[in-house]
Amino acid sequence: MTDSANKGASAGSSEAPRRRDQPWIFRTYAGHSTAAESNKLYRTNLAKGQTGLSIAFDLPTQTGYDPDHMLARGEVGKVGVPVSHLGDMRTLFNEIPLEKMNTSMTINATAPWLLALYVAAADEQGADRKLLAGTTQNDIIKEYLSRGTYVFPPAPSLRLTGDVIAWTYGEMPKWNPMNVCSYHLQEAGATPVQELSFALATAVAILDGMKASGAIPEAEFPQAVGRISFFVNAGMRFITELCKMRAFTELWDEICRDRYGITDERYRRFRYGVQVNSLGLTEPQPENNVYRILIEMLAVVLSKNARARAVQLPAWNEALGLPRPFDQQWSLRMQQILAYETDLLEFDDIFDGSSVITAKVEELKAEARAELARIDAMGGAVAAVESSYMKQKLVESNTRRLAAIESGEQIVVGVNRWTESEPSPLATGEDGGILTVPEHVEDEAIERIKAWRAARDGVAVEAAIAALKAAAREGRNIMEPSIAAAKAGVTTGEWGAALREVFGEYRAPTGVGRAARDDAGDLDAVRASVEAVSRTLGRRLKFLVGKPGLDGHSNGAEQIAVRARDCGMEVVYEGIRLTPAQIVNAALEEGVHVIGLSILSGSHLALVRDVMERLRAAGIGDVPVVVGGIIPDEDARALKAMGVAAVYTPKDFQLTDIMADVVRIVGERGAEAA
C-alpha cells in the first residue's frame, strides 16, 4: 500500500461511520408496443438495479377502448403498453413476483379496471393481496385540466376513485390507492403556487368525499389518509422547486391536522414520488437534457425533510421520441450514482436554518393558502373544474411561460440562445436515436383481441358485465365486480363501454375562450397579414385546430388557438379526442380556410393520412393542413408527401412565427384558387 493510500485510509478511519438513510425507490416510466416486449424491458431494468416498476399504458387502455375501436386507430402501443384483458396483464408481469414488487401504474379514468386486472393476475400467482405494494395514480381532476384521459363526468369519476380507496383500505393495506398528481399541472403551465394549491385542493375534494361517504369508519379515517400519496414535477428553477417541495410537506401536515383533526404525525406525512420535468426537455441540442434532468432531480432529493419516496427520470431524448433501453439505463445510473457514490444519505436536512429557504417557503405557502381559499369559496376543486376556472388559469400561465421564451426573457440554452451546434452523435444512426413502434403492432393487437373474445366463455362474460352495470347503477363499490369481470375475460373496452352506458361521457371546458394573455412580441405584422388575406378571401380567415385520436395533451393546441385568436383569426377549437371524420365534418360545416392538427402520441402518420383521405373524399382537399407534434424528420417528409403544407415540432417555439406561416400558406392557396 502506498503512503498516500495509507494516509487516505487513516483519514477515513478517524471519522465515526454515519448511518446512511435508505435510498428512494428507483424507477423508469416504461411500456410500449406489446405486453411481451414491455415485460422483457421491465425484467432487464430490474436486473440493472431498478427497484420498482412504473407502468406506462397506451391511450386506448387509459381511456377504456380496445385496440379495434375506431378511436384507437394509430394509438395502439404508442405511448405505453396496451392491456386489453387479463391475458395481457398476465404477460406483462410474467416472471415478476407481484407480492415482492412495488408497482406504480399511471392510470386514472380506468384505474379501477387496471387495478382489478392487476389483482386478478396477482391472485393467479398465489400472491397475498395484503402484501401487494404500489400506487394507482387515480387523480381524475388533473385529467380535466391537463392530460385529458378522463372518460366520465366529475361526480361518477370521483366516486370510482372513492371505491378504489375504500376497497384497498381493507383488502390491500400496503397499496397507495390515490396518487394526487401535480406533475401534469406543471406540464400544462402551472406556476409553483398553482401546483401547490390545485393539487392540495384535489386531495381535499377526495378526502371530503370519502369522509362524507362513511365508506371508512370515522376512527380509522386517519389511517386511510396516511395511504394518500402525491406525484409531483420538478422543473429547472432549482431553489424554487426545492422550496415548493418543503412547502408541500408543511401545508399537507397543516391540512391533515387542522381540517381532518389527525394527531398522529405518521398519517400526516407528505409521501410523494416524482418524475422530473419532461416539458423542459429540448429537441435542439438534446444532449443538454442530461444536465437538466440531474438538476431537476436534485431539487427533490437534497432536502431530507422533503425527499421523494420514489424517483423516475425521463431520458435525454424524450423530446425526440420513445427512449431506447440504453437511454433509460442512463437515467437509472444517474439515480444510483447520486444515492450510492455520494454522501447525500448520511446527513440531516442541509437546508434547515437557512433564512433564504425559509423565506421562499413561507412566501409559497402564503400564496397557496390564498388560492386554496378562493377554490374553497367556489365550492372546491370540482366546481373550479366545471366552471373552467382552473383550466383558464393554466392556459393563461402557460401563455406567459411561452411568451417569455419567445421574447428571450426566459433563456433556454440551445433553443433561444446559443443555438449554433455541432451535430449530436447521440441522435445519429439507423434508429435516429429513438425507439419506434412498428406499424404492424396495432394489426397484431387487433388479431389477438379477436382471438381472446372467441376463446372465452361468452355467457360468463355477459353475466359479469351485467353485474358490473348493476353495481354502478346501485352505487355499490365497483372493485369486486371489476375483479370478477377481469377473471371472466371481459376486455378493457367492454368495461369502459359498460360504465359509459351508466355514467355517460364528458367534455371538459377548454379554457381557451376566456383566457387572457399579456401581449407577447409584436403581433401587428401578423394581424395586418390576417386582415389582408381575409379581404382577399371575402371573409375572416378561419382556422380549425383539431386534436384527432386519443392524445389528450392539449397544451400546444390551446396555445395555438389562443395565439391565432389574438392575431385576428376566427378559431374553431372543440377540445380533445375527435375522430378524423368529426374533424373533416367540422371543416365542412364551418367553412374553414386551414386545418391544424396537434398530435403528440406518435400516431401522426395514421391519423393524418385518414384526415387527408377524408378531406379529398368530401371535396375539400384544397384546404391546407398543417401538423404539430413530436415528429421525426423521416415522418415529417412522409406527411408532406401526403400533402401536408407544414410540419412543426418542439423546436418551433415561436408561435407568432407559426401564425405568420399559416397566414402565408392560406394566402398562397387562396391566390392559386383565384
Keyphrases for this structure?
674 residues, alpha/beta, TIM Barrel, Rossmann fold, 2 domains, 15 strands, 51% helix, globular
Structural commentary:
The chain has 2 domains: 25-407, TIM Barrel (Alpha-Beta Barrel); 523-673, Cobalamin-binding domain (Rossmann fold). The protein starts with a helix and ends with a helix. It is globular and about 75 Å long. It contains 26 helices and 15 strands.
CATH C-level category of the largest domain: Alpha Beta
Quaternary status = single chain
For CATH, the homologous superfamily of the largest domain is named as: Methylmalonyl-CoA mutase
Continuous helix count:
26
**Terminal CA distance:** 88 Å
Brief write-up:
With 674 residues, the chain is an alpha/beta fold. It has 2 domains: 25-407, Alpha-Beta Barrel (TIM Barrel); 523-673, 3-Layer(aba) Sandwich (Rossmann fold), CATH 3.40.50.
